[in-house]
Amino acid sequence: DAGVIQSPRHEVTEMGQEVTLRCKPISGHNSLFWYRQTMMRGLELLIYFNNNVPIDDSGMPEDRFSAKMPNASFSTLKIQPSEPRDSAVYFCASSPGTGSIAKNIQYFGAGTRLSVL
Amino acid sequence: GDSVTQMEGPVTLSEEAFLTINCTYTATGYPSLFWYVQYPGEGLQLLLKATKADDKGSNKGFEATYRKETTSFHLEKGSVQVSDSAVYFCALTIGSIQGAQKLVFGQGTRLTINP
């Protein structure tokens, strides 16, 4: 199993540019989560999907952030326009979503380190 | 709301020392509890879990017991190794009607083991 795959691993961009982060969850997993990690704020849940449907986006910082999951094997997190305070490591995680115990175990990708200059 | 509080880091120990990282939680209902570990440059990975009171989760020499009476889930290891150096996160689930439940994480505790 390849695990959760995120791309790119590193992204450097200039303020005002659009940034798109990509995630391929583990095959067969029904739930997908986007997190942001910074030294100041720790690990924050941005949004999560069950069966491709957004369930809770209350963690999305503002309208500049949007996330989509067009099918079970792909999700994007977009920032437009980007700002220096968006610099962070963004993680995607997936979870089986079914079964009494295993459904809550999240499997994380290696993350995308975003730097906005 | 539901929350997790971990002991402040960083924690620095010598190899073969005993480790305890404290974790307490506040939750409505009966959450499941988790410890995740993040090695440098990597994403988080599940270390152990417990789904009901008095359950003990264990993995790689680490243990944690779900204590409902003290709302705690402290992580312990009897003899740490340099390879245990990482950031450790305590987490609980928040219920949802169906599908996977989102996790609430503590702030993380950075552990450094010196040879």
What is the oligomer described by this structure? heterodimer
**Secondary-structure class of chain A:** mainly beta
What is the arithmetic mean of pLDDT of chain A? 92
Strand content of chain A: over 45%
- Assess the beta-strand content of chain B as a share of residues: over 45%
What low-confidence regions of chain B span 5 or more consecutive residues with pLDDT below 50?
A: none
Annotation field: number of helices of chain B: 0
What form of chain A results from the Cα inertia axes? globular
Question: Sheet with the most strands of chain A?
Answer: 7 strands, mixed
Order of helices and strands of chain B: EEEEEEEEEEEE
Largest interface (CB < 8 Å) = A-B, 28 and 23 residues
Biggest pleated-sheet summary of chain B: 6 strands, mixed
Describe this structure in words.
The complex is a heterodimer of chains A (117) and B (115). With 117 residues, chain A is mostly beta strands. Helix content of chain A is 0%, strand content 53%. In chain A, strands 2, 4, 5, 6, 9, 10 and 11 form a 7-stranded mixed beta sheet that branches. In chain A, strands 1-3-8-7 form a 4-stranded antiparallel beta sheet, with no helix packed on it. Chain A is globular, with a radius of gyration of 14 Å. Chain B has 115 residues and is mainly beta. Chain B contains no helices and 12 strands. In chain B, the strands form 3 sheets. In chain B, strands 2, 5, 6, 10, 11 and 12 form a 6-stranded mixed beta sheet that branches. The model of chain B has no long low-confidence stretch (mean pLDDT 92). Classes of the chains: A mainly beta (117), B mainly beta (115). Chains A and B meet through strand 5, strand 9 and strand 10 of A and strand 6 and strand 11 of B.
